[in-house]
Amino acid sequence: MILVIAEQRDGRLNRASLETIAAAQSTGDTVRIAILGSGVDGVAGELGKADAAEVIVVDDPALKEYTADGWVLALEQLIAAEKPDRVFLAHTYQTRDFAPALAARLKRPLVTDCIAVTGGGYVRPMFQGKLQAEVAVGDAGAHLATFQIGAFRADQMKAGRAPIRRAAVAVDGSKIRQQPDAPFKEARQAVDLSQAERIVAVGRGIKGQEHIELAQKLAQAMGAELAASRPICDAGWLPMDRQIGSSGQTVAPKLYVALGISGAIQHLVGMKGSRTIVAVNKDGEAPIFEIADYGIVGDLFEVVPALIAALNG
Amino acid sequence: MAERETLEVDILIVGGGPAGMSAALRLAQLQKERGGEPLAIAVLEKAREAGAHMLSGAVLDPSALHDLVPDFTEKGAPLAIDVRRDDIYFLTRAAKLRLPITPPFFRNHGNYIISLNRFVKWLAGLVEAEGIDIFTGFPATEVLYEPSTGSGQAGAVVGVRTGDRGIDRHGRKKSTFEPGVDIRARVTIFADGVRGNLTKALVRRLGLDEGKSPAVYALGIKELWEVPAGRTEAGRVVHTMGYPLKMEEFGGGFMYALPDNLVAVGLVAGLDYRDPMFDPHVAFQHLKRHPVIASVLEGGTLVRYGAKALPEGGWYTIPKLYAPGALIAGDAAGFMNSARLKGIHLAMRTGMLAAETAFDAVRHGDLSDTALKAYDDRVNASAVRTELYPVRNVHQAFGYGTIFGAAFTGLSLVTGGGWLKDPMPAHGGWTRIRKLAEYYKDARPDPESTVNPVKIDRQLTFDRVTGVHYSGTRHPEDQPSHLIVHDASVCATRCREEYGNPCIRFCPANVYEMIDAGDGTRKLQINASNCVHCKTCDIMDPYQIIDWVPPEGGGGPQYEGM
Question: How far apart are CA B209 and CA B333, in angstroms?
Answer without folding.
Answer: 10
